Amino acid sequence: MSIKELFKKKPKVDQHTMPSAKSKADVPEGIMTKCPECKHVILTKDLLKNGKVCPSCQHHYKMTAQERIDHLFDDNSFKSMDDHLKTENPLNFPSYTEKVEADAKATGLNEAVLTGVGKIQGTEVAVAVMDAHFRMGSMGSVVGEKITRAVEKATELGIPVMIFSASGGARMQEGVISLMQMAKVSVALERHANKGLLYISIMTYPTTGGVSASFASVGDINLAEPKALIGFAGRRVIEQTVREKLPEDFQTAEFLLNHGQLDAVVHRNDMPEVMNKILKLHARKGAVLV
Fold first, then answer.
1. pLDDT of residue 8
2. Which of 52, 135, 240, 269 is packed most tightly, with the most Cβ within 10 A?
3. Which residue, of 61, 85, 111, is where some domain finishes?
4. Stretch 27-46: mean pLDDT, rounded?
């Protein structure tokens, strides 16, 4: 080999084209999920099998309304209600209609709550499941109407009602019409209680604003998922108002449990069995248990 050939520059090797290196295209998008808490990486399909709970640190990911129904209810037992209701724009708020339509297309829901009747290990129950993927689960007129109708259906059938809260609060684009839903749902729940019927409230991440200040906090049994954010105003607003530094775990499910505002904090994968026990214990006299 000549000196000229020895010192001749070798062409650069593109690492992405080397046979031993995998390009990004070799790994389908979404096949792996990285936990935002512990940074553990898991196959997305395994995460879904585990109820969207990190197997390493038990972080509870947000669930869609349909995922929660599939996780909790008996197969093919859930029948949805009021899917025809559609949100209007009573205040002519700019771009509001377009944003609602975009979320409806992305989630497959008509609004930020899925309601209906189904069975949990054989026991019939009405349910409203809020979905934070739709306008952050905010409560507008249709959300309030759907939840109210679900409660009224439970009262009519003489069965328990469950509400899974996941909401940023009242929807500002509908103004006072949104705030009215707090009272409307609460009145329906009071009528349900007057019939001697059970209401179970389950608070998930996040349960805030007008939802936390109304129907989410008045269950006969109040449950929450681990580390769920639950509160009315934000931490910074409260700290600036009271001029005090709040505890690190303030407005978490565990904090509320320690201060008597919850009955239990329940791991998501334990929820089906816990619900089954509660429903059986509170079955109406003369009901047939299966």
1. 55
2. 135
3. 61
4. 88
pLDDT tens digits, residue range 96-144?
999 999 999 999 999 999 999 999 999 999 999 999 999 999 999 999 9
Number of domains the chain is built from: 2
Binding-site residue positions for Zn(2+): 35, 38, 54, 57
Kindly tell me if the per-residue pLDDT of 200 is higher than 70.
yes
| Model confidence, pTM | 0.86
Range of the structural domain that residue 49 is part of? 24-61
Q: Which residues pair with 165 in a beta bridge?
A: 203
